[in-house]
Amino acid sequence: MTGTRIDPATLPGRPCSAASALEIVGDRWALLAVREVLLGNHRFSQIARGTGAPRDRLAARLKSLVEAGVLERRPPEEGGRYDGYHLTDAGRDLGPVIRALLTWGNRWAVTAPPVRILHHDHPLEPVTVCTTCGERVHADDLTREVTDPAWAEEGRAR
């Protein structure tokens, strides 16, 4: 990612990459803007219509996503206007996160799913697979390694 990175130690509470990620994309309008670009909506008006965000808030979120390196604005062709917003590698890496949120939302947050993602001819049921060994990841197989010497799993180290 070419944008600004956050030192987890500068945030309140336990240093955590999830907390740092939420500083960048944890706002409702930020993730919905990324969703719209993932769906192929690149123009501000399309993103505004798809998110329902207030225009001033959306403009601020899009600006912060560009500054963070999640989105980019492509320069205009000669004499034209900007080619809208496009995902960077960092933005494309949010695709599985948004698909997982959609799946969770379909299961736990809505009375009837308004959208489903299909994989070939069936609903997608995403799982996490370790790219190193190729195995499906199960919570029971995970351990944590605290790498910040100021913290232990129980909390702040003495």
UniProtKB/TrEMBL annotation:
<dbReference type="Pfam" id="PF01638">
    <property type="entry name" value="HxlR"/>
</dbReference>
<keyword id="KW-0804">Transcription</keyword>
<keyword id="KW-0805">Transcription regulation</keyword>
<dbReference type="InterPro" id="IPR036390">
    <property type="entry name" value="WH_DNA-bd_sf"/>
</dbReference>
<protein>
    <submittedName>
        <fullName>Transcriptional regulator</fullName>
    </submittedName>
</protein>
<dbReference type="InterPro" id="IPR002577">
    <property type="entry name" value="HTH_HxlR"/>
</dbReference>
<dbReference type="GO" id="GO:0003677">
    <property type="term" value="F:DNA binding"/>
</dbReference>
<keyword id="KW-0238">DNA-binding</keyword>
<feature type="domain" description="HTH hxlR-type">
    <location>
        <begin position="16"/>
        <end position="113"/>
    </location>
</feature>
<dbReference type="InterPro" id="IPR036388">
    <property type="entry name" value="WH-like_DNA-bd_sf"/>
</dbReference>
